[in-house]
Amino acid sequence: MFVDEVVIKVRAGDGGNGCASFRREKFIPFGGPSGGDGGLGGDVVLLGSHDVNNLIDYKFKPHWDAGRGENGRSKDQNGAGGRPAVLKVPLGTVVTNEETGAALGEVTQEGQRLVLCKGGTGGWGNIHFKTSTNRAPRRANPGLPGEHGVFRLVLKSIADVGLVGYPNAGKSSLTNHLTNAHPKMAPYPFTTLQPQVGVIEFPDRYERITLADVPGLIEGAHENRGLGHRFLRHIERCALLLLIIDMAGVDGRSPEDDYKHLLAELKLYDPALLKKPRLVAANKMDLPEAAANLRSFRRKHKVDVLEISCLNKEGLAALQLELLRRVRGGGKPAKPRPAARKPAGAKAAPAKKAKAAAKAKPKVVKKTRKVR
Fold first, then answer.
1. 214/116 same-domain check
2. Tell me, what CATH number does 89's domain have?
3. Is 212 exposed, middle or buried (0-12, 13-18, 19+ CB in 10 A)?
4. pLDDT, tens digit, for every residue of 228-241?
């Protein structure tokens, strides 16, 4: 079960109470105050971790409380701090206050800590209240209460490439071939019911990129048709959008119309998605109808297209390399290498030869006749 949005109710620990006590030992008649301070209450902390990939732990247990600080004791002993409540969340988790709607922060790195509620401070013991005129204070402060609140956690997967397409266009097959993820594959639509994030490895280059596969979009997804727009949040941070198109039109659809509808649904969700760099993968090129459809598609849409076939695994190596180049280049296609320049001496040689020839050529002196 994949859960990418939950509401939790958390409470930090209260601070411990201060202690009012006096030092009582043999041969020390006036020992003075010796009450220690109360301990700090535990915090509620979000911890970024690679070990979790969704928020299912907080769907069935939405209430989390931190420990209370221990009370101060005699002999100047401070109370122990309360146990913090550490909630592990996947990277890309955004936190908002459910009551005010204010954004509190985002967990984007492994080991990053985000404090939701701060624990209460411990109360002072009576040792803090002694003065020259009040040598035996009997006052001690209570601990302060910890913070509490209701928060919404929303997971937005962090990936380099976002894979978008119609149902049954070959997204799961492509993810299986390119990455180490293994989503379900079947010859019917909506086999992908939850986002999948896989890693594309480049062992010879010592590099890797991540690819997010979201469930298929259909026309009218903004009206909650199919699985709706719910999972498009997982491609908001992608550097590159990869749109996979069934170029053979196996299900009786037109590749040109599929491309238009995908762009329309992305715009209805967030117009900023259309400003992202995108690349089209023309799938099912092994079928005879695909070649004619691809020519028509290229005439109508000015977009970079790579031909692939997930069935025969054709064009996948070139697609992998192109994805790496574009991700490293900020989503833009790699620039062609400039032509090798000729050395500067090669251009100057003809000019030098002409000058030398001019010097070697004898000058012709014209004789003028004098007119008497």
1. no
2. 2.70.210.12
3. buried
4. 567 778 888 888 99
